[in-house]
Amino acid sequence: MEDLPKISLTRLFDDMDNPRVVGRCTYSLKEVVLIGICAVLSGAERWTEIEEFGESKQDWLRQFLSLKQGIPSPDTFRRVFSLLPAETFEQRFAQWVETTFRVEQGQIIAIDGKTVRGAGLRALHWVSAWAHRSGIMLGQRQVDDKSNEITAIPQLLDDLYLAGALVTMDAMVPQTKMAQQIIDKKADYVVALKGTQGQLHALGD
C-alpha cells in the first residue's frame, strides 16, 4: 500500500484561521489546540483536566511550544474550542491521524451510526469510521436523523484514506454508489444486504 507522508501535529494548525479577536489573545491558537489534543489523547475529559495535563507536562511541551505565558486556564480552553469551526478542525486532525496511525493492509474500518440520548436533550445522531486494529476513530459526522446517514456517509468516506482497508457497513446503509466509492478509493467492502438490494448484490459479484 502506498504510504502517506507524515504530517507534524505542531505545523498542522499553523495556518488555521484564528476565530478570536486579533490583538486580544494571550495564548497562540496553536498552543491552546495542541495542548488540548495531547491532553485528550492522554485521557483528559474535562477542561480542568486539560489544564492539569499542561501544568504537569510543561517541560515536555516546551520542546514544541514557546509557552511564554504558561498554560491557559480551563475557561480559555473552553472558549477557544467552542469558537473553532468543528468541521475544519476535524479535517485537519483526521489528516494527522491517518498519516500517524497508518491504515494497515486489510484493516477493518467499520462505518456505523449511533444515537446519543440525554435527559431533556434532543437525540443526536452520528456516523463514524472506526479502525479496529488501531483502536482509533478516523472521523465522524453528525446527522439530523438516522434517515440522513445515506447523505453523511459518502461525505465521511471522502475524507478518509482507505487504500488497502476492508470497510464494513450494516444493512440499513449500503447503496451501489457507496460501494463504488469504496472501490474507487482502492478498498474492499463487506456489507449486510437485504433481499431487496439486488443491484448491490450484482455489483458485489
Explain this structure:
- This protein has 205 residues and is of the alpha/beta class.
- The chain has two domains: 9-99, no CATH class; 102-204, 2-Layer Sandwich (Nucleotidyltransferase, domain 5), CATH 3.30.420.
- It contains nine helices and five strands, in the order H-H-H-H-H-H-E-E-E-H-E-H-E-H.
- The chain has helices spanning 9-12, 29-41, 47-56, 58-61, 74-83, 86-100, 149-158, 176-184, 198-204; strands spanning 108-116, 124-131, 136-143, 166-169, 188-191.
- The chain has a five-stranded mixed sheet.
- Strand 1 and strand 2 form a beta hairpin.
- Helix 2 (29-41) packs across helix 3 (47-56), helix 2 packs across helix 5 and helix 3 crosses helix 5.
- 22% of the residues are buried.
- The model has no long low-confidence stretch (mean pLDDT 80).
Properties at a glance:
single chain, 205 residues, alpha/beta, Nucleotidyltransferase, domain 5, 5-stranded mixed sheet, elongated
Task: Give the N-to-C terminal Cα separation.
Answer: 24 Å
The count of helical stretches stands at 9
Do you know the CATH architecture of the largest domain? 2-Layer Sandwich
Structural category: alpha/beta
The biggest beta sheet is recorded as: 5 strands, mixed
Order of helices and strands: HHHHHHEEEHEHEH
- Could you name the ranges where pLDDT drops below 50 across 5 or more consecutive residues? none
User: In percent terms, what proportion of residues is strand?
Assistant: 15-25%
The CATH class of the largest domain is Alpha Beta
How many domains make up the coordinates?
A: 2
**Neighbour order of strands in the largest sheet:** 3-2-1-4-5
- Helix content range: 40-55%
Radius of gyration: 20 Å
The multimeric state of the shown protein is single chain
What name is given to the CATH topology of the largest domain? Answer: Nucleotidyltransferase, domain 5
Q: State the fourth-level CATH superfamily of the largest domain.
A: Ribonuclease H-like superfamily/Ribonuclease H
Average pLDDT score: 80
